Amino acid sequence: YPSEFLMQKITEDNEIPVHLHVSASLQYVAGLKGNALVEFFHGNIAEVENEELRHLMWSSVLFYKTPNVEVMACVLLSTKAIYFLLDDSFIRADEHQSNFWNKENSGCENSSFHLSCCFVLKLNDLHSVNVGLFDQYFRITGHSADHIVTCLTRDSYNTHTFIQQLMAVLSLLARTPSPEPVDKDFYSEFGSKNTGKMENYELIHSSRVKFIYPNEEEIGDLAFLVAEKMDGLTNLQSLNILLYVLAFQVNDVEGSAQNTSSLQPKTLILTSSDLFLFDEDYISYPLPEFAKEPPKRDKYQLVDGRRIRDLDRVLMGYQTYPQALTFVFDDVQNQDLMQNLTLDHFGE
Predict the structure, then answer these.
(1) Where are its TM segments located (predicted)?
(2) Does residue 325 lie in a domain region?
């Protein structure tokens, strides 16, 4: 340890997505390659001497306690824990974090000294992993509200790779075997199965960590929600969700020295007739076991919806992935334009 293949893989993965801006401390981490990266991990992050770094990923993350603050993080998976190396701007982003992080003010004037906040989730404290629709994100749940984190990878490949690596690392954990199942009587067995609701697909790992995947009902619920927002749609059967993707809506910020763009996280849903943008709650659903009340907002909140037939043109940027698309719609208030022209010009 570390093998040449692991060194190469971690070096390749250590790249900040070009569209996201991070602080100097994380820029420093992204500049490390090969052996320097492994040494940095053991010297600054690892909690015990004999743990091995197995996987590295850059991702936006959300915490259960601060669901409105999405922050960039370098996610490091070792044989003992998952480490989230956070952008230091996160600490200043919300006053509610002061109790959560217990961070003391550091009077470091030296610009070469980089300070980052690191959130640690030990693998032994891991209860379940919820994979989002179409592997666009996943939520890691520990034993309390402080230990719930969602990684918004916005990339099915990154999600799949991390889950595979996590399962491999969990297989190394020595946990006490589960107790023998207790024989249930007929009535309790029969009653428990008739909940009237289809459970999500669950895969219980040998380490007793649950990996929970969405079922078809979740797509059905989403289709129903979308249908409610569409005027004049009577046949729900004909509604097909063609695309579900976590994206950013670009808002140009004017008045600054150079026009910068702020990225607003949005869920884009494309059907055969409409294009929708939703604000989605990626961290509160499904409800954790210890939640005493439902979340303050719905899982999906409609931000904008346009008919495909009103789409005039799509402008594509020339930059590499991630691609920027601009949708230009005919902004006609009254859709029956020809009828109105007839009335205006030829009617009384």
Answers:
(1) none
(2) yes
